[in-house]
# Entry
Amino acid sequence: MSEALEAQVRHAMTALSAPVAPGARSVTSDLTIDETLLLHGMGYEPTDLVTGVSVTSIPYGTFLVQYGQGAPSELPAATSAVLEGFRAASERVRAQCAQSGGVGIVGVDVDVDIAPTSVTVALTGTGVRPIAQASTRPGRPFVTDLSVRDFALLLRAGWEPLDLVAGASFVAAPLQRLKQALAQTMQNVELTMLTQALQDARELAMDRMQTAALGAAAHGVVDVKIIDGPLGHARHTLTFICWGTAVHLVADRHQRIEPVLVLPIDDNTGFEASALR
# Structure
């Protein structure tokens, strides 16, 4: 063993045997090594892995729809349950971030589960803060589902994330009577009630997400994710749930980022000499 390596081992053993300062703790993160190094290169460090969960009940019978010829109608109980779930989960993950000393949460993973009588919303991400600095950001921590790479690009362009905003809508289409259903089984015909229900759900959900962004004084919403289509346990109910990161411009103007050509040198793909003929 060389003298330099031996000295490093002794230093490591000394660090492990040193008493831990009161209140000190290790950092837990779901970031990859590349993301952690990129985060440090931006002047930030992870504080802790934070989570927020909310399970909100839906009244029994909400998804039961009568037969008839009426127009599609929204189900307010199911819609409000999803919106309340996002709100409560966001506040809880934000509180954990503030408790860990973070100024924001990046890489938030969003999981939404809709059951016949409940909605579960779970958020998981990594709290971050400026390295060796007290929080200089006023107000509450930001929440974003952007990756560390996208977060870095956003900051370099003069923007910053504000909040994770969401919109939702459940719209039920009237059930067809047996005679109508049989008449459509032998021909191609648009199911106008289902089409209109999905369109209505989309418009309502998008409007709610945009209204939430305006309430956060954002200039826009980026990286929007969408869950749409009929419910598995209520095929006549069309769902549209969307969420994204509200952002606003903090620089005087948008900063143009010039692309940089990167040539990898670890490509293991080979070639046959005969291909050069």
